[in-house]
Amino acid sequence: MSTTTVLSTPDPSVFGQSVTYTATVTGITAGAPPWGDVTFAIAGGPTLGPVPLTPTGPDSGTASVTDSTLAVGSHLVTANFVNSTDATDNSFGTTIQQVNQSATTTTVTFVPPAPVCGQSVTLTASVAAVPPGSGTPTGTVTFIVSADGPTVTGALDASGNVSVTVPGLSVGTHQVAAFYNGDTNFAPSNSPLTPLTISPASSSTALVITPASPVCGEAVTLCAQVTTTPPGTCTPTGTVTFTVAGGPTLTGTLDASGLACVTTSAIPVGPHAVTATYSGDT
């Protein structure tokens, strides 16, 4: 009567890795080569075959199949040899195949690469299986932005990517990290810390003089409107210096709308160049 043994390689494996199952049948007593077929039944997985036995000796042979579809866990693998001539010569063998989680890598990128104050930033994480594992991870990724930034969680799409938008980060350098939280078949991982620098936004300054043609001794109001240049959206703060050639130098503080005004009666008779200089803020 025949005897069947089965071996799986590699064992253990990781999710998505190809595993070869080889049945060896010896002591066949009935029929002629190739004697019959082997079917591989995997608990919690597929049934593979039948596969014709390949003779390796006068009363022995092997049959092999390959599969990569098993979920994480322990699986009983049964190789059933069916002698096509004599059913009393049938036999089976078993083994346990252990499938572990696949390791993953997580990377993080952001757009735009050089954001300015008030500009929203889109963070994107990509999670992939580490070979020999394969497949697409599922689940969630948590983004952490240091230095007063938020913590945001998003779900991976069908390609293993997720994007979130973070508005209004403060000016300065932040460290961004993406943490993949893992799922049944894929292990957690995190990206390296990636610096994200928010720069001050550009601005423009418009000067208005009232009245436009004053007379000697008349009070003159100088107003500067400071406007943030897109894509920045921060409201300018700080001071504006008004310089009157041949006259006074005055300083005004911006209000909540970005407007600063000063009034003077100390401008002498004659033409004067007037400039308004915004000193910026953080």
Strand proportion, as a percent range, falls in over 45%
The Cα radius of gyration reads 38 Å
What's the total helix number? 0
CATH superfamily of the largest domain: Immunoglobulins
Name the average pLDDT: 96
- Terminal CA distance reads 87 Å
**SSE string, helix = H, strand = E?**
EEEEEEEEEEEEEEEEEEEEEEE
Major sheet: order of its strands? 2-9-8-4-5
SS elements, strand count: 23
Domains, number: 3
Structural notes for this entry:
It comes from Streptomyces antimycoticus. It holds the Pfam family Big_3_5. Residues 8-91, 111-198, 209-282 form the Bacterial Ig-like domain. With 282 residues, the protein is mostly beta strands. It folds into 3 domains: 3-100, Sandwich (Immunoglobulin-like), CATH 2.60.40.10; 104-198, Immunoglobulin-like (Sandwich); 203-278. 0% of the residues lie in helices and 54% in strands. The protein is built from no helices and 23 strands. The strands form 6 sheets. It has a 5-stranded mixed sheet, with no helix packed on it. The mean pLDDT is 96.
